[in-house]
Amino acid sequence: MKIIKTVAKKMDVLHSLALEKWYRYGVRRKNKNKNFTIISNDCWGGRVYMDLGLEYNSPTVNVFIYSDCYLKLILNLKEYMSCALSFKENSFYEVANIKRNETKTHYPIGVLKDIEIHFLHYKDEEECITKWNKRIERINYENLFFKFSDAYLVKEADLYAFDALDLDNKVCFTAKPYENLKSNIWIKDFKKSDFVLDPFKYRWQYRKIFNIVKWLNRSFETK
C-alpha cells in the first residue's frame, strides 16, 4: 500500500509538471506583447512574467501591498517611483505585525513616502534595494497594466475606486461577484473565502478564469 501511494504521488507530480509545461508553451507562443509592466498588489504579476518567460519589468514582483497603499501608488506612480526606498521595523498595519511575529517571517518592509511595500520573498534590505531599483528602470510607462484584488484589507469602496480609475488596462480579482464593476473577474473557486488566495499556490484558479494573453495582446494590438 505504501509503495502504491508513493507511485501515485510521483505520478501526480509528473502530471502537474506536464500541465505547467503545456500551459507555458501555449501562452508563450501566443503572446505578442513582450515589453509591458504589471503593477500588482501581490505576486500575481511575477507569476505572469514567469509563465511568459519574460524579464521582470516591474518593481512589484514578489511583494504585496495593502489596498489603500496600492491605490495611492497607482494614482501617482511616477512620483512614488522617483522616491528613494527606505525601511522600517514595524508596519502601520497591525495585522501585518501580528502575522510576522506568529510566522517568524520578519521580511523587510519598504517605505515610499507614506506607503508601505511588503517584501515578503526577500531576505534583506540590500536585496530589496538592488532589485527594486533595477526593475524601476525597466518600467514601460507606455505599456502599463494594473492588477488589484479583494485581498490585503480591501474595502468594497476600494474596489469601486479602482474600477473608476481612468486606466486602460486594469483587472480586479475577487472571491465574490460585483456585477457593477467592469474590471472585476469573479473567481468562483474562492467563493467560500473572504478574498482571493495565493496566486502561486492556486495559480490554476486564476488561469482557467482569466486569459492573460488575450488581455496583454489586446493592448498591444491597439497601439
From TrEMBL:
This is Acetyltransferase. GO terms for molecular function: transferase activity. The keyword Transferase applies. It holds the Pfam family DUF1919. It comes from the Bacteria. Keywords: Transferase. InterPro entries: CAC2185-like_sf, DUF1919. The keyword Transferase applies. It comes from Flavobacterium psychrotolerans.
